[in-house]
Amino acid sequence: MAPARVTSTREAADWWRDAVIYQVYPRSFADSNGDGTGDLEGIRQRLPYLRDLGVDAVWLSPFYASPQADGGYDVADYRAVDPMFGNLLDADALIRDAHALDLRIIVDLVPNHSSDQHEWFRRAVAEGPGSPLRERYHFHPGKGEDGGLPPNDWESIFGGPAWTRLPDGEWYLHLFAPEQPDLNWEHPAVADEFRSILRFWLDMGVDGFRIDVAHGMVKAEGLPDLGGSDQLKLLGTDAMPFFDQDGVHDIYRAWRLILNEYDRDRIFVAEAWTPTVERTANYVRPDELHQAFNFQYLGAPWDAAELRAIIDSSLDAMRPVGAPATWVLSNHDVTRHATRYANPPGLGTQIRTPGDRALGLRRARAATLLMLALPGSAYIYQGEELGLPDVTDLPDDLRQDPSFFRAQGQDGFRDGCRVPIPWTREGSSYGFGDGGSWLPQPAGWGELSVEAQTGVAGSTLELYRTALAVRREQPGLGDGTDVVWHDEVPTGTLRFGRSGFACTVNTTGSAVRIATPGRVLLASSPVTAGGDEFELPADTAVWWEV
Ligand code: GLC
């Protein structure tokens, strides 16, 4: 049974509308058996930490049977736990213990593609052209005289053509790595299989699903050429024949009916990269999914005017469909925001330079208070509560991101945010486990550990703990679909609020004087407030009781 914890005044079934959801990347969270890789038992043992941090739910990146060609986003068996992470009994224990602590568990579902080691694909390849199993993927003859050219001009997100040719002459489609063949969602067996997989995990007791590449499953009729070069530059801004096709919404309407058969408090979260927030809103119409990640917000620079614009457009887009907005700053696919904000704007989300670390951390802390003051649901990526920077100097020969090894792909530097997190000051892999860590942790990682920050006034960990506690206690914080802006603030600053509460943010590099809104609840860097006006330091956010 799902837990009955109610945040603020919400009905339990609506818990997700203002939930704070913590993303665990299982390989890098906690290693219970000392093999250098995190596992489900490690996560289970650390659930009390997450409960004390104050989050509502935990989203687990994939832990299914997988050759790990793309960090588990290449699934060979959707109903099995990979031995590197444990087994189904461990998954069961994790779900039960989480529920006993009033934490909900959201698992990742990867429906756009399987692993090339999935039984369907292996058999399809073995049986050769004409095998009915090939219809479950996108197998096609090539173009040109000897079929030596790919069936169309699509490029893989990870770089190179989106097609690979088999020795028997046929080509298959993979929008990501060649080890991730795209499933053909026009085939009824594919739809049936995923309905069954959903039920399998719902019966295991999970509280929801994060849907990987939720915008990708349906491809434009006839797989038309895209035309032109530099296709990847169009991602996220232009309409593409393989992303965000209207037909994908039929799949989600059918899935919602399945979810509705269970307790009414389970949810779907879409990873949908679309050209506009309005297109994203289509995924969270009342009969489809519940939430969609707000990647436009994640991509915004640390700039008051730009942040305000994207906050407004996000809320405006969600209001008509009745879904809460979501807010996210980091995940396992992008350079951690403490490092993004340490660098000049405009470098995108795959950054290779550490930048000014003190500046990045200062802004990251302020950005967190801003995010947690907004109405809607917020996502926290493991380690951001420790203020971790990205590890930008990993040796190339240790990198594992498949995109790093393919020319001119998107992504490529995602290992830097996947380095196992530090729990203790000292010891093998700083408390991650007894057997080292699958990616090397940098020197000084122990000083950022949970142990080093616990109970230390002003540490980033304590800032998160306090912010989450205040968010839970303050009536209405996180609720609703509106923010009320105060326009009488200096350029580069923001002030918004709701009854009884205000948040002020200074995104500039200099202190500004502003009117004192009330009593300080929490600040991302030290402030002295008294009198009618006060000094809001550079790159700082403050929460006020008014
Ligand atoms: C999603 C995942 C990413 C993965 C890709 C292909 O974007 O977040 O990690 O590489 O899908 O599955």
Describe this protein's structure.
The strands form five sheets. The chain has an eight-stranded parallel sheet with strand order 11-10-9-5-2-1-13-12. Strands 14-15-16-20-18 form a five-stranded antiparallel sheet. The protein is globular. Strand 14 and strand 15 (493-498) form a beta hairpin. 23% of the residues lie in helices and 15% in strands. It is built from 13 helices and 20 strands. The chain has three domains: 12-112 and 188-469, TIM Barrel; 119-173, Oligo-1,6-glucosidase, Domain 2 (Oligo-1,6-glucosidase, domain 2, Alpha-Beta Complex), CATH 3.90.400; 483-545, Golgi alpha-mannosidase II (Immunoglobulin-like). The protein is of the alpha/beta class. The protein binds alpha-D-glucopyranose. Alpha-D-glucopyranose binds next to loops.
List the helices and strands and how they pair.
Layout: E1 20-24, H1 40-45, H2 47-53, E2 57-60, E3 64-65, E4 77-81, H3 88-100, E5 104-109, H4 119-127, E6 139-140, E7 163-165, E8 171-173, H5 188-204, E9 208-211, H6 248-261, E10 267-270, H7 277-281, E11 291-292, H8 295-298, H9 304-318, E12 326-328, H10 337-340, H11 357-372, E13 377-381, H12 450-453, H13 460-473, E14 484-485, E15 493-498, E16 501-506, E17 512-515, E18 519-523, E19 533-536, E20 540-545
Parallel strand pairs: 1-2, 1-13, 2-5, 5-9, 9-10, 10-11, 12-13
Antiparallel strand pairs: 3-4, 6-8, 7-8, 14-15, 15-16, 16-20, 17-19, 18-20
Helix pairs in contact: 5-6, 11-13
Bound molecules: alpha-D-glucopyranose.
